[in-house]
Specification:
The structure is a homodimer. By secondary structure, chain A is an alpha/beta fold. Chain A has helices spanning 8-26, 34-41, 45-53, 67-78, 93-99, 136-142, 154-166, 193-204, and strands at 31-32, 65-66, 84-89, 108-115, 124-125, 128-132, 147-150, 171-174, 187-190. The first copy, chain A, contains eight helices and nine strands. At the A-B interface, helix 1, helix 5 and helix 8 of A face helix 1, helix 5 and helix 8 of B.
Chain lengths: 206, 206
């Protein structure tokens, strides 16, 4: 398969398949028909077939899907067979919350927090050390970083993004309320919390 | 204007206009051409015109936009002229981070946190009291709640959503990793952090 031909809409549905199938495993469900899967996940059966067709052949006509096999296949497609090294830039409340969120169970390991506050540098937060942001480049030259998580205030976020990109991070998970400009080979996923709140507000007044 | 005819794509662009125009105000910019606005925000000039046309007439052909007036108009469209009352369900790290995020500057006021942990109940976190989740209904019968923020573990999120919906909340900002089922008149905005991470992971491996 050529992963770069897959549309973002399909890619953004993969985590939902993963979540739904994980829940079924937890409930002890071993086999599921495409109709049942469709009802549980809320996508049409034809949508599900089309999504899976992008990645090869799953299940057997009339026999449905083996839940464990399908979850493993989806996990493989997403890339969850590896461990990913994360650093969190900004050791504020949000950075702290992300360190302690439990992503490690899925293979996302936060190796370090960075901050410029002398009061915070050197502290251990949920088992993760807060390192001086001044030595970010030194850290990144010695340690693998797959995902740089930016939780800094908006006004310094672009500068931090520049620094992690130059130092070799290939993906940024951005919580700062700015639209980052990054090199073409760096992937950015934004979580714009204020935008979410404003969307809710608009819809509330509809 | 009929707000319910506006597409979600347009609605989701409004916060970005708000952010971009607020930055311009901070920089002391008073007037901007549609071309400059387009370059700053990254939408085409025709896209911007179309977006604004949904809501009436802004700016004047050849004269561009008065930034302050435009920001006020966008704020009004989003509904930022009011104060919104939020409660946060789940006083964990994420709940705590949200209380302290600074949304109050935009008129989003967190009035209470709720939890079932006796160790947490009664505490004041960033000026907000943690209340026993058992008295959620009593609280909601006496206090206005515009937005219920769910930061509980996934397995209890649906039950909490049911309770806040029955008690009159018209919108839910959901951070739990589940797809909530709510009455038609309740708006849900999801922030699925694990889904974001998986999307990044997929793209990293592309």
């Amino acid at each position: 398969m050529n992963r770069s031909n897959i549309s973002m809409a399909v890619i953004r549905r993969l985590p939902k398949y993963h979540r739904c199938l994980s829940d079924m495993i937890d409930k002890g469900i071993e086999r599921i028909s495409s109709k049942e899967l469709s009802e549980t996940i809320g996508f049409s059966a034809s949508q599900i077939r089309q999504d899976f067709n992008n990645f090869g052949k799953f299940g057997q006509q009339g026999y449905g899907y083996n839940v464990k096999d399908l979850l493993e296949a989806i996990s493989g497609i997403i890339g969850l067979q590896h461990t990913y090294h994360l650093i969190v830039l900004g050791a504020g409340n949000l950075g702290e919350a992300l360190v302690n969120f439990g992503f490690d169970k899925l293979g996302f390991q936060v190796d370090a927090l960075f901050d410029n506050d002398p009061e915070k540098i050197g502290r251990i937060i949920h088992g993760v050390e807060v390192i001086d942001i001044n030595i970010l480049e030194t850290y990144m030259s010695k340690n693998p970083v797959d995902i740089a998580v930016i939780t800094t205030p908006g006004k310094v976020a672009q500068k931090i993004a520049d620094r992690v990109a130059i130092s070799g991070a290939r993906s940024i998970w951005n919580f700062a309320p700015v639209d980052l400009i990054v090199p073409d080979d760096v992937v950015v996923e934004d979580v714009h919390l204020v935008d979410n709140l404003m969307t809710l507000t608009y819809l509330l007044n509809e």
